[in-house]
Amino acid sequence: AQEIREIFTHLGFLPDEVEMIVRRVTSDKELWVRFMLREELGILEETFDDPKKVGAIMGGSFAVGGAVPILPYFFLDDVHAGLWAAVAVSLLFLFGIGVGKSRLTKIHWLRSGLEILVLGSLAAGVGYLIGMGIGHLV
Length: 138
Prior knowledge:
This protein is mainly alpha-helical.
């Protein structure tokens, strides 16, 4: 109770206001514990999304994102043509994701599209270089 008094006195509350707050907070054990965790210890309550829902969304996203570069190989017989088609389709897909993101972030669609395109290309490039490095080691 004394710690609650000190906190609200420091915040500038009048003594009678502080006592009213102390009585209210200490009258409810759950409120008192929550208050002390948050105000004294700085521990905030966290909420977590449903793990099944998050897992389903992530799994679906990976499935869709992983299918995009593979699709051209189903329609082209030449492996080199398939590779270039996969790169082109992937770049278009990344740009499209960025354009879609602009609806949420309110950033200009071209800037958002290019941002995701560049970041995705960099990630793919790093993955390619790591794969090449591992290929040379093995």
